[in-house]
Amino acid sequence: MAEAQIILSHSRESGIVAIAAGEQYPRAHTALTESGFQRDDDGVWHLPADGTQTTVVDLVTCAKQHRASVHTSSRRYIGDAARDLARLLPGQWHASVEVYAHPAWQEDLVPWIWDGGELGRAVRSERVPYAAVLTDAAQGTTLLFIERPGRQLDYLVGAFSPEGLEGGYGDPHAPRSIVLPPFPGRAAQALTDRYLPAYEQAVHARQTAAIAAVLADIRSEHDTWQTLNASGRYSDATPLSAAALGASTELFLDHAWRRFLTVVDHAPTLLDRCRPANSPWPDDATALARLADAVSDAEALLDEIHGDAVPEQERRARAWPAIETWLTDGDAFLRQARLSAPHRRPALPVTAPARPLAAARPAYRSH
Length: 367
Known about the structure:
By secondary structure, this protein is an alpha+beta fold.
């Protein structure tokens, strides 16, 4: 891509819109400003609706003076395409545009893209100067929608990492992005029928794997602590003082609590999906009830910690029973969670007011 480039496209509501790109994008900004364009909060430039007589020819002339090239996209404005798609999706979806004028801004996306398919590869290896973000605030789902590189019509859509489950491109649990046609109805159907169910299955599997890893780590450390406590000696046979034993106990409990917060974050959703009566292990219902109570106790403790200072000793004493319950009954949870399937979204679009989801990652930077 040229060092300073202006990409023009047509918006249904705004007419001609422009996006600046390239390492020297400020030169494109200067040309757009001098040509009468105004920039919105998304970083997209528009001609004001005040009867200005600025033409594309005027912009090209001005851009040449500032060593910026002008290109006209064969596609319609990506903001229009994303909003048309969002209106047809079930739930409360909001569409916004992000501009990655400098190539380094695009690189900021890489750790956040949760994809095992073409979109992840494109973000890593192809120039993507702009994109649209689709968010469903109610479900906590955030998708990236881009023009498919090297193609004249298609789009690609994939997911950002869910909150608390960072694991970008290459994560084995990541869903695979899909190609969407340029027709909003067909694109919405493909997204609803194919991608979103696969995404929800992937989130379920990723949450289950995260909890399994946490329980395995805590159990391993617990075994090590028990061995140390029983022997009264370090691994090199040096005697362990009472003070050292107390310190090792506190260290173990603190680390276990920090790791256990992953369970507190993700277990409630998975527990709600478990149906032990319909599984080969109906008696797991009793264990699942104990696990749910343990999570509730941990959530209450967490609320108190956030509200007022809870002494360290009290926090350790209150946290351990919940952790111990999960170490004891965690296997029952894992086999039930692996059997349970996420709830599918409604098949028909639901019309509802859209509300934005607060960004939890780097977005467009205004310069």
